[in-house]
Request: fold
Amino acid sequence: MSQALGVRRHDMDSKQGAARLNPVFCSDSRFLLDAFGEAVQELLLLHEQQFHAIVGGDAYSDRFDLLIHMANEKKHEAKYAYLRHLEAHGCSTYDGIEQS
Reply:
C-alpha cells in the first residue's frame, strides 16, 4: 500500500514539474504560434522541393527562389507578430510558479 502511495506521489510530482516547464498561452498567442509554425513548414517544403529539383537536374529549379523569398518574408512576419504579442500581452510567463 505504501508503495502505491509512493507511485501516486511520484506521478503528482511529475505533473507539477511538467506544469512548471509549460508556458501559459492565451488563445491569441496559440493562434500566432500556430501561424508561425505553418509558415516555417511552408518554407521548409519549398526548400525541399527546390533541393529535389536541383538533384533531379531541373534546369528551372531557380523558379523556387522567389517563392522561397516570399515564404521567408511570411515566416518573419509571423514570427514577429507572435513575439510582439507576447511582449505586449505578457502571456509568455510561466504558470506562476517561481523557478530558482
About this structure: The mean pLDDT is 81.
